[in-house]
Structures are given as structure tokens and as C-alpha cells.
Amino acid sequence: MPNYLIWDFDDTLGHRAHGKWTASLVKVLQMEMPDFPIDVEAIRPHMQSGFPWHTPDVPHTHVTSADEWWDSLCPLFAQAFRGIGLSPDKADRLSRRVRDVYADPSAWRLFDDTLPALSQLSGSGWTHCLLSNHVPELPLILSHLGILDEFAVVANSADTGYEKPHPEAFKRVLNGLTGPGAVWMIGDGYEADIAGARAMGIPGILVRKTHPQAKHCCNDLLGVAAVLQESSSVRGDPR
Q: Do residues 43 and 140 both lie within one domain?
């Protein structure tokens, strides 16, 4: 029976090199209004809520295209731009530039341990899957980074309408697996990745940080193999 690892992407396998949402709005301002005095700390509070992953208990299956997904966020971006003094018209116009900046594949990077860890675990017989709360352009980002073909299943909340830790987000991956043996979740978020997986009966490994309620934690991805090996030994798994 095949054994599967379900990976989170953002801050687990890869990251946006020059910051996330606040940085993207700042970049838009620098491009469109280079002489405008930018107050980063006035933008940041607007990025703490309003994204679909901030309300994971609320599905957004009614959003059926990438354009609709981004359109639903434009009011949030426009509010942030208005909050630093832009007129409503300028705020609305700039809000529609955030997509080009944030989702630009060239802005994304893999962590140094990502490819070695994926290769090591593939060589040990594990099949990789991806489950991410992300933007619609995630497949383009993965392709640019050269890892899209590493995954047997890619489930992205922008496509499925379900954000981790919603049970349906995990079901979208599990339903695509063929006769799974062992299944593990690996991610950097305790609530979304580890607790969400545990609620579905899937053990998890928290990476790049620790949490008092996480049974398995690793400082980096190269420690994942040791956790899996130790767990299989405890279970008496002959593999």
C-alpha cells in the first residue's frame, strides 16, 4: 500500500521572498505612486483579517474562478489604501494591482532544505501531496519553483473553497489517494495543519516551530524522516 505525506506550502516548503500581503501593498504603492509617503504600520492592521483563511469554518465554494477570488479581496486592499490617505478612486485602482505583485511566481522561493527533504522521503517510498490555503496561482508558483510534479495531489483552498482546518479541505486530498497506507500531515501551522489533521485521524509533524500540543516537532524538513522512522518502529511497522 502506498504511504502519503500531505504537505503545507507557505512557510513550510516555500515562502515569498520579500514579505507577504503588507509588503505587496507597499510594492504596489512604490510602483504606482513613488512619491507617496508610505506608512507600513498603517497598512499592516488591515491585513490581519478579511482573508478566507481567517474564517475557515465558512466555505467559499460559490467562488468559481481566480478572477472572482481576487475580486473578493479587492475591498480589503482598497480599505487599507484608503486608511493611509488615498482617495477612494485611487485605492480601488491600486487594489487591483495587488494580484500581479503578490502572485508573481518570481517572488517566491523554496527553503534550502525543501528539495533535499522531498528527495530523501521519495527515496524512502513516500508519495507527496500538497494541501494549502493559498492564492489561485499556486500551481504556477509551484511550476516556477520546479516542484509541481513532485505531488500526486494538489489541493488548494482557492480552488476547493475550503480552508484548513475545515475537514472538507483534508477530504479533498484523501479522496484522491489510492489505497493509502500511512498518511501524515506536515506543516508550520499548528491549528490549520496539525490540529486540523488530527481531527481527521491523521498524525502530523509541526516544522520550523514548536507548540506545546504538537506531539512531533522538527526544526527543519530534514528531521521529518527521523520522526517517520521512529514512529514506524514504535508501531512495529516492517516497512
A: no
